Amino acid sequence: MKRIVFIFFLILLTESPRLEAHAFLKDAEPGVGSTVQKSPSEVRIRFTENIEPAFSSIQVFDASGEEVDKRDLNLDRSDHALLHVSLPRLGVGVYKVVWRVVSVCEGEPVLTAQLIIARAVHIAASILLAGIFSFDLVILAPAGRLGSGDFHEIERRLFRLAVWSLIAALLSALFWFWLEVVSMSALPLKNAVSATAWRTVLFETQFGRVWQLRLCLIASGFALVASGLVKVKARRALVPVLWLLSVVLLVSLAWISHAAATAHPLGLLGDVLHLCAAGGWIGGLVPLVIFLTPLVETVAPVLRRFSTLSLSCVSVLVVSGISNSWLLAGSIYALFTTSYGRLLLLKLTFFAILVGFGARNRFVIKTKLLKAPSGPDLLSQIRRNVLCEVCLGVAVVVIVACLGVTPPARHP
What we know:
Blueprint: E1 9-15, E2 25-29, E3 34-36, E4 42-47, E5 57-61, E6 74-75, E7 82-86, E8 93-100, H1 112-144, H2 150-185, H3 195-204, H4 206-230, H5 235-251, H6 258-262, H7 265-281, H8 285-291, H9 300-329, H10 332-337, H11 339-369, H12 376-404
Parallel strand pairs: 1-8
Antiparallel strand pairs: 1-3, 2-4, 4-7, 5-8, 6-7
Helix pairs in contact: 1-2, 1-5, 1-7, 1-8, 1-9, 1-12, 2-4, 3-4, 4-5, 7-9, 8-12, 9-11, 11-12
């Protein structure tokens, strides 16, 4: 008579000191703390965000501390939040699974303050670039055909501002990338410049691939803006190209966001629309301040166009913001009980104040500016309101940078 021997072993999923603050264990097979009757062929762990396999690992150890897995970690082709590693036939015993992951969003902010600064400067520079060329193409160009000679000088100032924005974008991009190499590789700061570490991040992670695109776009932007400053007659032809380049540069940030890490199509679309709207409105505020000078005579048509553009952008921001907030927060309760939720509420508060200033300017434009000649006092009032909007916009961008290094409220 043959005896049937059942193989029992315990799978303990324990968390090593992780590189990623945003990806959490969602489910595992075998389950956490489970007892099974036969040896599984692999360990499968699903996380709350898409994973970068280059900096992730799953190791299985027996009771003596010897690693027993086949060391063939794989990312599932259809589910990029699922990692699995193969196992040989295991005997009866207790086995421990240790995992370590980095999500596609980014690594854990080992230097939180520096990362927030890098993110804020880079996002602000990207928004400003999109705003400069959106303002030039959509607002300034039609009004410029009215014949005012001051429009050429304003456009020259906008191109100079674009140069400084590109410099800020480049320097902050390099600093941000350096911090990500430190975070993902777990190397000390001074060793993060090693060729192996930065090449792995640049060529084997989604963050790196997005950064390749962004650095190429920034370099192209430098060449085109420099050409526009030297060749005045070529500016009009360059503006549409620069507008498209700046919009692509801005929306590419969506592919390293929380929405990209969760792989939710609606979230990624919401991020793209949110960034485009922010570029059109908040990014256009600084060009508007430059435009509102005593030298410019044709003020009313420009302000009317910008007011219409702003209203459209605010509508998109509200709709996409509600969608993204629900996706990442999950409930009203989470807004008040999590760090991510409280930061989101603070952002919404500043956004509401920002909309209030925008509504006030729109009221002034419709009731006073379009019905009477624009006097210096009225223009000064509008400039002050726009400057307040700029300050509030900067505060919103800083909060967005903080949200990027904070685990979404929907995660456990």
